[in-house]
Design brief:
Elements lengths: L2 E3 L6 E5 L2 E5 L4 H34 L3 H17 L2 H4 L23 H26 L1 H32 L2 E4 L6 H10 L4 E4 L6 H17 L3 E5 L2 H7 L3 E4 L6 H8 L4 E6 L2 H10 L3 E4 L15 H11 L4 E4 L7 H6 L5 E3 L1 H4 L4 H12 L7
Parallel strand pairs: 1-3, 4-5, 4-11, 5-6, 6-7, 7-8, 8-9, 9-10, 10-11
Antiparallel strand pairs: 2-3
């Protein structure tokens, strides 16, 4: 049998009258073009699919027309580039990546994890489209560079919105204190319905704080709760916390916001009307109001009393949490003074049954008519 070589880069062969002829259907440049088309087609699909998943939550979960419209607009902008020419290059049976998967893709622990995974998917796809698109159309690379930045902004705004919505819905706020059973106590409270946790430990070294903060953050997000770090902006950034809580002697809220970004929560402790008004003017997302009663966690600081709680009820336009010595025995006095939210330390951290105490405190707070 005679073999005749027709081209330098064969792609298939066939027999013709006893002669095996090596044939290339396209030139080398045409083959390369088809590869680029397949890359663009796959990533255009990936970006649109990821945005659709985000859009469905904005539409049905948040009922937010602005976010829904932004997702839809981005999908339509992507569709503009998804031409028939690119679709025609698709070769699903011959795609070596269709069977590839990762264990993390098979499980989602919360709506937040679904959103973050799909934002990541969209951003990665757009980066691919930006680079390979330059080989297809000079304007395509520019277009997807701009769209990628728009998706980053959408992610920050959406996750920030989610955080603030949960902040407004939260009635009970646990501020932790150092304890050997820290994780089990917090998880027990989360099982009872807790949705807001602050990690506070002023004595441990940074290595311990970092390890505990990471574990608490994972635990809170597993239960769909917000996780706040006391004082330490660097630690909040390191573990991707939902925000920070600042005391009166800590840095200005404006600086904290610049470091953390607008999508994270910044809270401020206040002990009187003047401090509250200053926190509102600075742009705090919430304030602590107290200490209502004298407490060892604020040793030497006189109680602000129920009168300050009543002042906050009439004058505070953002979420506020009465704090300081509040427990199951006096929570109704605090509620009667005007509080709709409370923060606690010892009543949960030292409780024998944190789940039951959480449920009781929430049952009292949930009897209050929600804010309009």
């Amino acid at each position: 049998m005679t073999i005749t070589r027709i081209v330098d880069f064969p792609s298939f062969d066939e027999s013709r009258n006893g002669v095996v002829v090596m044939v290339e259907p396209h030139s080398q440049s045409e083959q390369m073009q088809q590869v680029v088309y397949r890359i663009l087609d796959a990533n255009l699909d990936r970006a649109r699919e990821g945005l659709r998943i985000v859009e469905e939550w904005c539409r049905f979960g948040l009922n937010n027309a602005q976010f829904t419209g932004e997702c839809k607009r981005l999908r339509q902008d992507i569709a503009h580039w998804h031409t028939a020419e690119l679709r025609a290059a698709r070769d699903t049976p011959g795609d070596a990546g269709t069977d590839l998967t990762h264990p993390h893709e098979e499980k989602r622990t919360s709506i937040k994890s679904v959103l973050q995974a799909n934002f990541c998917r969209v951003q990665e796809a757009m980066r691919v489209l930006e680079e390979y698109g330059k080989l297809h159309d000079p304007n395509m690379g520019k277009a997807f560079k701009q769209m990628r930045y728009q998706v980053y902004t959408l992610e920050s705004n959406l996750l920030g919105y989610q955080r603030h919505q949960l902040l407004w819905r939260s009635r009970l706020y646990l501020v932790t204190s150092p304890a050997e059973n820290l994780l089990s106590t917090v998880e027990a409270a989360l099982k009872g319905g807790l949705t807001l946790v602050q990690y506070r430990d002023k004595t441990a070294d940074d290595g311990v704080r970092l390890e505990q903060a990471r574990k608490l953050r994972q635990l809170c997000h597993l239960y769909g709760a917000l996780f706040i770090i006391n004082d330490r902006i660097d630690l909040a950034l390191a573990v991707d916390a939902d925000g920070v809580h600042l005391g009166q002697q800590d840095m200005p809220i404006e600086i904290a916001r610049q470091l953390l970004g607008s999508h994270r929560i910044v809270g401020r402790s206040t002990t009187n009307a003047e401090e509250m008004q200053a926190a509102l003017a600075e742009g705090a997302d919430y304030v602590g109001v107290g200490p209502v009663y004298e407490t060892p966690t604020k040793e030497g600081k006189p109680a602000a009393g129920l009168q300050y709680v009543s002042y906050a009820a009439k004058n505070c336009s953002i979420p506020w949490f009465a704090i300081g010595g509040i427990d199951a025995n006096n929570i109704n006095d605090v509620i009667d003074a005007g509080a709709q939210r409370v923060a606690v330390v010892r009543s949960l951290m030292q409780a024998e049954q944190p789940t039951l105490v959480t449920q009781y405190l929430l049952s009292q707070l949930n009897r209050i008519k929600p804010e309009s």
